[in-house]
Amino acid sequence: MPAHSVITIDGPAASGKSSVARILAQRLGYTYVNTGNMYRAMTWAVLETGVDPADADAVQKAAAGVALESPVSEGQTQVCVNGRLLTVEDLNSDPVNRGVSLVARVPEVRARLVADQRALAAIGPLVMEGRDIGSVVFPESPLKFYIDASEEVRAARRRAQGHADQVAERDRLDSTRKTSPLVIPEGAVVIDNSHLTLEGAVDAVMAHLK
Ligand code: CDP
Ligand code: CDP
Ligand code: CDP
């Protein structure tokens, strides 16, 4: 078991998992960790080196030279690449959206980020959100959730955020990759929030914690 409790939240793209995780962490006073931003930061750094994200060998070599840190600020982890704090715009740019699932399928990249994610449990109780948190990163956590929503609702939510994002294509890559694909973790509570408000989705999670 981790040093502190870790509530794991997984789910497909634009299902609402980061919003739910952030509010839940605020309500509980836990630190919120968005692991997608760690894969996004690695992708941003790999793109900076001019490497094609589809070239797994080149990605692995470029990623090995990247220093990634996750300092905590205002109750959540940020991401720093080679000492530079990345912005929301950096992390959600079109090139990063297009490349991130390709970078995230490289086993060496995953092994390193999973180790970083486990080490974060030393800082205190966490709400950690991603694709493999309940299945691979903290499989022994007794508090696992899978936040889902229909494909139409997810595409509409992402459009409303104003980002060009091929949500269905990322889900296809994330669910079919060899190393830690997106799955419903064993023992996870599944919450479909297609027809729930954000607060309603957080309440649904809280109801299972009591
Ligand atoms: O990074 P470091 O080697 O110091 O730690 P780690 O072995 O990666 O584990 C960090 C935390 O994650 C520990 O509290 C482990 O108990 C926990 N962990 C876990 O819950 N499940 C695993 N399969 C591996 C580690
Ligand atoms: O917010 P959204 O659901 O669109 O994506 P994200 O959580 O920021 O994750 C971006 C990408 O990182 C995902 O599409 C996955 O390819 C990868 N990822 C992963 O492989 N494992 C995680 N634990 C988190 C994200
Ligand atoms: O992290 P993930 O990509 O799964 O989703 P998100 O960024 O938390 O949510 C995508 C958008 O849907 C955000 O603008 C949320 O405010 C919105 N949302 C919503 O309107 N109702 C919900 N029940 C959940 C999320």
UniProtKB/TrEMBL annotation:
Any GO BP annotation: pyrimidine nucleotide metabolic process
Locations listed in the record: Cytoplasm
EC number per UniProt: 2.7.4.25
GO molecular-function term, one example from the UniProt record: ATP binding
Top-rank taxon: Bacteria
Main location: cytoplasm
Annotated Gene Ontology cellular component terms: cytoplasm
Residue ranges, annotated region (Disordered): 157-178
Bias-annotated ranges (Basic and acidic residues): 166-177
Pfam families, alphabetized: Cytidylate_kin
Catalyzed reactions per annotation: CMP + ATP = CDP + ADP; dCMP + ATP = dCDP + ADP
Residues that hold ATP according to the record: 11-19
Alphabetized InterPro entries for the sequence: Cytidylate_kin, Cytidylate_kinase_dom, P-loop_NTPase
Keywords: ATP-binding, Cytoplasm, Kinase, Nucleotide-binding, Transferase
Class of enzymatic activity (EC top level): transferase
Limits of the Cytidylate kinase domain: 7-208
Gene3D superfamilies listed in its UniProt record: P-loop containing nucleotide triphosphate hydrolases
HAMAP family referenced in this protein's UniProt entry, alphabetically: Cytidyl_kinase_type1
Protein family per UniProt: Belongs to the cytidylate kinase family. Type 1 subfamily.
Name of this protein: Cytidylate kinase
